[in-house]
Amino acid sequence: MENIAAKLLWTFLGLLIVLNWGMLKTSIVRKIVARVGGRYGIRWYQPWINLIKLYGTRGQLSHGVMFYLGPVFRIAGGVGLFLFMPLIFGDPRWSNFAFAGDLILLLYFKFFGMLGMALGAGEGGHPYSAIGVSRGLSQYTTVEIPFTLGIIALAVQYDTLSLTEMVAAQQGGIANWTIVTNPIASAALLFSMLGIFMHAPFDLVKAPNEIPIGPPTEYHGSYLGVLRTNAAIMHITEAVLFMNLLFGGANNWIELIIKTFLIYFITVFIGVVFPRFRIEQSVRFFLGVPLILGILAIILIM
Amino acid sequence: MSEETKHNNQPENTEESNKFPKEHLQKRTVYSPDGEKIEIDPLQDYYLQDRPERRDPRYRVVEKFLNWARSESLWILGFGTGCGSIELPPLTTPRFDAFRFGIAMRPTPRQSNVFIISGYMSIKTLKRAIRSYEQMPDPKYVVALGSCTINGGMYFDSYNTINRLDKYMPVDVYIAGCMPRPEALIAGFNKLKQRIKEGRAEGANEYVQRFDEYKANQKQIIKDWNMPDYNW
Amino acid sequence: MIKKLTFLALIAGFGYMLWTGLAKYNAAESLNRISSYYAQDGLEEVGAANLVTAVVVTYRGLDTLGEVSILFLTASILGFFLVSGKGPKIPLQDSSEILKTASKLLEPIILLFGIYVFINGHLTPGGGFQGGAILASALILAYLANPKEGINKSIFRITESISGVVFILIGILGIVLAGGFLDNRIIPVGSIGDLISAGIIPIIYIFVGMKVGAELTSIVTNLKHSPKNNVE
Amino acid sequence: MVTPIYIIAIALGIAFSLGFFSKGSKGIASSLFYLALTALTAIAGQWLIAFLTGDQSTVEVFTSGFKPPFSISLQMGFEEAVLLSMINIAGLLGAVYLFDQFKKYGAHLMITYLLLIMGLDVIVMTRDLFNLFVFLEIASIAMAGMALITNEGKSVQAGFKYLTATAIISAFFLIGIIFAYNFGDSLYINELLMSEGILKAGMVVSFLIIMPLILELKPFPANGWGLDMYQATHPAVGALLSGASVTASAYVLYKLAPLGGEIGYQVIAILGLITFLGSNLAGLKQSHTRRMLGYSSIAQTGLVMIVIGLQPMLGEMTLWIAFSILITNFLAKSGLFWLAGIINKDELKSWGILRKHPILLFLFVMFVIALSGLPPFPAFFGKWELIMALANSGNAWWIGLILLGSLIEAVYLFRWVGYGIKDKSFDFSINCSTYKTIPIYIMGAGLIAFVGYYLNHYFGDVVWYFIPLAFAALMFILDFLPAKLKNIIAIIGMGGYAYYMYDHFLGVDNLRFFFALIFIVGGILTLIPGFTKSGKRLGFYPAALLMFSGLGMLISATDLLQFFIAWEIMTIGSYLLIIRGKNSIKHAFSYMLFSLGGAFTMLAGFAFAQSGNPGIGLEVLSNMNYLPGLAAALIAIGFMTKTASLGLHIWLPGAHAEAESDVSPMVSAILLKAGVFGIILLFIGIGAEAATNHPLTYTLGWLGALTALIGNLGAAFQEDAKRLLAWSSIGQLGYILFAFSIMTHLGWLAGLTYTANHAAFKAILFLGIGGVVFRTKTHNMYEMGGLIKKMPLTFITVLFAIITLAGIPPLSGFAGKWLFYNAVIMKEWYLQGTIVFFAGIIAFLYSFRILYAVFLGHLKDKHRKIKEAPIWYLIPQFLLMGFIMLFSMQPELILRPFGDMISAYFPTDALTWDNGTALTSLGYWNGFRVGVIIFILFGILFGWLFLTSRKVKKIKSFNIVYAGEAPERPETTHMAHNLFAGYNKALGFLVAPGITNIWKWIDESTHDLGDFIRRIYTGNAQTYLVHIVAYTVIVFMLINFSI
Amino acid sequence: MMALEHITLIIGSSLILLGLWGLITQKNLIKIVISFTLVDAGIHILMISLGYLKNRTAPIVDGTIDNAVEQIVDPIPQAMVLTAIVIGLGITALMLSFVIRLAKDKNSLNVSNFKDLKW
């Protein structure tokens, strides 16, 4: 019983850290982008203010049960992903609930939030929501192919599907990181990472101006707050996933923070350089070079 | 559509609907898959008819904290009605960089809390503006931009332009000028922040309180009123 | 042209086929087993001087029954088919005086000859079929001479039926009294060459003759009479 | 014993005496006439009974008191007795059917008719060559005469063609007889067959004897004259031609075939094959009922010719096979021709009128099924034996061609059945006089009796096996009861069956028990929605139980024959079920064609498999000697048509989507598993060791992966909810096929998990959507929307099913995915595995689509008062949902027995359990913990949102932000049509109907070929004569120069 | 040296071929029937000639013949011909009646005009 309580406590702590780091990361990234553009940029604490404001919205509207549950599904997906993700290597306190399932579980659990969110947005009844979902799902299907190919390549390389064991195998210096030992699979994974984070050029799903921010068009107030909370957690968690897969995991929080930031920054960097893809363009893109890289990765391990 | 349905779709014999027929808002009869007759009154069936509800502030300290947060996170719904719409985009440029004040643009009323009426407002646009305003969640603030919103400005005698915005919705801040420059806008936002922090920016509740009055004003000028009284 | 050539090739092919068979043919020097049996023992067994008759009526009696049936069948088919047809009615013309006169003269002689041929069928060349055909020719002659004179068909029909039934009954008697169906030895064979000999053969031939005569006549009259009285 | 000579005596005697009663006394005439026919039948029947019961030996009857060869003799043996009975019964019943015609035409027609029957009788009995000629002439003249009953231009032309053709054929025969007598010195057939002279005389003699007999059987293409007879004459004449005349002629050919020796047999068989294929092809485009029946009759004759020709190979089975085919053709064709007479319209479509006469419709369908050679009708057993024998003697080509011909025949026959069952475009009524229907009933009863006889013959010792079939038959009889009562009876019956399965297979063969569970318990669950139907629901229960009994019998089958019969019964039942849908006529047709095609390939595969084995038990699959690779592939293709694998899938969407609401789950969730079961049996047969690197499993793996991809992609682009689910079934079956092809412990475990899951969630989905369709009366998703508010319970079940389908944790779908990845990686099938994964993600597209477009979005005007789906739809859904929840939370409970089942074949313990955690060498997964974590998490976060959101106001459908405007109508606001437009733009080309087009091309070119072929039937009597001469000459030349 | 039987054989065969030629080329219905009778006749001649034995007499036993086996020709073909002739007669009659009926229908004797049934 104590064990469980302690576990819960540590996990909650981890969640808080990740959440706040996610918020901070957002403002840092925005700031960097602003500075590149010659602006001052948002204040570093702006995300928290926004969050407080959203949770403090007075009147809320609901289109129905599924609309209400959509954000819950979404954040359950995000937090769940966090829960099944080992954070710090070698420290059982920060390995969360990773003992309940392996990489495959993570792979599939991502969809939990997506589907719930899509349904919630669907009940909102706004046509733009549906368009956004349609685009999101369409893009996601192809993003996942290089991702899966890469994961399989890694699973074969390390002969395990357990993330913890994969990290364990990468210990001992940069030379042991997957990005060095298996650059092709890593390239495939990094390509798909661009799609997973949905930054430009793959941000048509949100398309802020033509289909007002896509699926969550109708969401406001606390709903939006929940979604933003989730986004903060999700981004870090996904970055942690790639960190664990490719960059040797983290031995402590500092390492984790630095690595996740750098990983996330890859997508930001690419995003500010490239314009946006149309949906069929991005679908075709992921079936091009990333797919070939993925297949190459597979062929190399066969 | 069957012959009978068409027949039943003839407008009702009210003065209003005859004047401004809008087919999809008229009552119609359809038949369920089982052949059951269903009377559809789109206004009743598809729109919530409730009056708006007053939403009181919370406890003092909490509300103060929240007001601070709201004031530092102003999400704009830009309603580019007149020439003022050209003055909004510069806010995001490096020269003015409104982001640093917590000001951001949002594309949908649901996620915004500041409504900017940027200039003269024709009667036709007013309807849309009212709808958008009512769809924003509480608390919400209105910033009126330019002289036209104050007294009609150069359109003071136009047959299709309103003269005073606050006859139709509660305005928090007026920014005078024709047109006011972005600096003036930022000044106006600062004024708004101040108002919010002081807890005086309860426009939404005021709108609720004087709902009938506002509606009467709105309906007086908008002839083809074909929406529910309050757009949720 | 090509079509014709193809046909020619076909016929040539058929000719070749026949030739491959006939080329193997060698005229036999002696009777084969079966015909020698007929030639040797047939005389005693059947008692008909005309061996062909013995074969036709007794040994291969079933064939004969079949051929009688075929004529009967043809007559029946014509009976229900042609009489019911539609089409232009061909006007009947009177026959020439020569034909009328000659027919009156010839008819009895022909009839008599026909009867002679089938009564002597087991002794001399001839028999029921030949006799019947001669009978029919007389009747047809009479008919041609007086085409407008109606012919009483029921006489032919009843003749046909009676002869047929008797033929069958004789056949069955063969089972009862002698060796098998159509066995001619239900009455004594008698001595070869006598008029009354060869068992029941002469009697069968009488009926066959009558039957064939009647059938052929009715076939021809049916062919001729076609457009008249429709069935029902 | 009455000597058969009396057949002649009575027939002729009465015929002659009928002349007395020309006009006046019709009553006596017709009583005499019917008496005569009855007497003939009685004589034949008495001999038949004597042969059947006692040890009566073959009797030779001499005429005129002399022994053959000096006089003509008749023979009465068992074969003759059987055939005589058939001919005379056909004659008697035909005469009853023609009652009105006899009344009209009187004695003359009676004479013709009587002589026809007598002629056919003697043809069968006679042992004298020339006598045979005489009576052949009698029969053909009488037949030409019978053509004249319908006294109109067409039938006269047909009669003339028939007469000239048979005359010329007889002329050839006569030449043959002369030659035979000249060279063989005898006319006695028994002597001629052993005569050395004929052999010496060369081929032409026997050729001229056999060829006319073949020509009498109307071989393709020299048969235009026969076809015209079928088309233009009175249907009863067609029945006689097809039933009696063919029977007699075929027997004559059988009698005289030994004359030709080895080559003769070969020629007969080849000509028969040409006839079988050509005639069926030519029949494809036919729209005139009786002409089409004619093509079919001729094709059947061709089949009989094949059997006769293959006699040296078939040995003692020849007669049995030929009889099986002949008796079926005889009973069914007679019945069909008579039915055609009752309907009295030329077009195939006019058979829709039978909908008004259920009994006739039943008989019609039964006749056609019997004709197509499907079990349990005699023709099937004939074909089975034929094909087994062919395989045993190593004649793969023959098997292929015969099955191809059968398939082509099925095409036009089942198209016709479709019209009969479904077409509503008739605008006339029919008059079913008793004297016209009684013969049909008798033929139907005869057919059923023969089914009984054959089943008893083949399965006398395993009668229990057919108990479910008997139950289905019982439902045919009970069809007059109200639907609800029948539903109860059906469920009780199925319950009993389930208990039987439980009793026999649990613990003995758990794999079979598992499938029995899916088939039978699934069946019970899908029967429950039937309670919503009122009225009688004619035809539903017999068909459904036919299908379920077929499924059940599949499980308990112990040999190939039983298995195949069960398979076909299941196919027939499901066809009858599917065709009940509103617009399903086309789709049911293509379902049937693919099923039959699959069944035929499977049959060929079975034949190869059993070749060289001592028995036909299922164990032969593990000991294939003859063409083992091909056999396995053919069997697999057979099963894959049922699982709708890529290339063979095009029938599925239409068939499943257009079926009735409660039929779709039956066929989709349950029926498809039959194919899976078959594939498992095949794999078990091939054996774990042999299959690990078997090219077949490798190919099937790829095929499964591609099927999954294309199926799911296809589903994403559908607008029709049920079609979407149907496409999804294709994809899911692709997964299953793939998983089993992996051929490892884990792969099979994944396969079984998929199978169980798919059965559960697809049933829920089809029932849920079925309930929606039941209420909304439309399939189009864009016409639905917003139904969550009206049908919340359905939404919940569908949501659960979708989550399971998508494999999202924590529901049980994930179990399958997890096992699957472990298996794929261990098997090193990475690329295939990735494709399947891709397919799995595409599943999200349609999962979302069906949930969104149907339940979310905007409620349509006309659905505002719609009710929740009927309770009978919901009950099974919630039961199945319970199963899914159990599986999700306690996967060990279900996966462990699966593992034990598989251990018999793959004895590795690749999956171990540690306190609820599943462990493989690669990964781990604890379903219970994941479930608990997610549910608790969900609860906490829900609470969080609840706390932070204040005063939630429920708003209505159009209270959405719309850029300051307001939506106009729900139809224009519900964004559902072409939802994945962008995706379609990018990847839509993958599901462009390429395969459909290929099949369409095959279909069209086959039809065009058929159309081209039938152009030789110019309708000109002379052309037909040319055909006959040319046929004779060409065949002669070919033989002559090839010797 | 061409013997009698050879001559008859040739005549018979030629008649058969001639008849067949007529059957497949002549358009007139009556001529087709006539061609059929030609074939028939040819076959009959063929039958008789195949049953012929050199220098023998008809199979009728009267006083002039003492050893029938040595002196008569084969009676069986003759009996068969008798039957065949009658059968041919029946068929011919029936054919002619069909022709009459057909001619009445379309007022034509051209065989190509009777193609109401095809395909």
List low-pLDDT spans of chain A.
Answer: none
Oligomer: heteropentamer
Distance between the ends of chain E: 53 Å
Distance between the termini of chain A: 46 Å
Helix content of chain E: 55-70%
The tally of structural domains of chain E comes to 1
CATH architectural designation of chain E? Orthogonal Bundle
Radius of gyration of chain E, in angstroms, nearest whole number: 19 Å
Strand proportion of chain E: under 5%
Sketch the major β-sheet of chain E.
none
Number of helices, counting only DSSP H or I runs of 4 residues or more of chain E:
4
**What is the domain total for the residues of chain A?**
1
In round numbers, the mean pLDDT of chain A is 88
Q: Which structural class is indicated by helix and strand composition of chain E? A: mainly alpha
User: Strand-and-helix sequence of chain A, N→C?
Assistant: HHEHHHHHHHHHH
Work out the helix count of chain A: 12
What does the average pLDDT of chain E come to?
A: 86
The shape of chain A is: globular
Largest sheet of chain A: none
Radius of gyration of chain A: 19 Å
Can you give the helix content of chain A as a percent range?
A: over 70%
Short description:
Chain A has 302 residues and is mostly helical. Chain A contains twelve helices and one strand. In chain A, α3 packs parallel to α9, α4 (103-124) packs antiparallel against α5 and α5 packs parallel to α11 (279-286).
Describe the overall structure.
The complex is a heteropentamer of chains A (302), B (232), C (232), D (1043) and E (119). With 302 residues, chain A is mainly α. Chain A is built from 12 helices and 1 strand; from the N terminus they run H-H-E-H-H-H-H-H-H-H-H-H-H. Chain A has one domain (2-301). Chain A is globular, with a radius of gyration of 19 Å. Chain B is an alpha/beta fold and 232 residues long. Chain B folds into 2 domains: 3-46, no CATH class; 60-221, 3-Layer(aba) Sandwich (Rossmann fold). Helix content of chain B is 35%, strand content 13%. Chain B has helices at 3-8, 15-19, 42-46, 60-72, 123-135, 148-151, 182-198, 203-209, 211-221; strands spanning 28-31, 37-40, 74-79, 103-105, 114-118, 141-145, 173-175. In chain B, the strands form 2 sheets. Chain B has a 5-stranded parallel sheet with strand order 4-3-5-6-7. A two-stranded antiparallel sheet of chain B has the order 1-2. The longest helix of chain B is centred in the last third of the chain and has 17 residues, at 182-198. Chain B is globular. Residues 1-14 of chain B have low confidence and may be disordered. With 1043 residues, chain D is mostly helical. Chain D folds into 4 domains: 1-127, no CATH class; 128-432 and 993-1043, no CATH class; 579-938, no CATH class; 951-990, no CATH class. Helix content of chain D is 72%, strand content 2%. In chain D, the strands form 2 sheets. In chain D, strands 3-4-5 form a 3-stranded antiparallel sheet. Chain D starts with a helix and ends with a helix. With 119 residues, chain E is an all-alpha fold. Chain E has one domain (4-113): Orthogonal Bundle (Helix Hairpins). In chain E, helix 1 (4-25) runs antiparallel to helix 2. Chains in contact: A-B, A-D, B-D, C-D, C-E, D-E. The interface between A and D is large, with 87 and 81 residues.
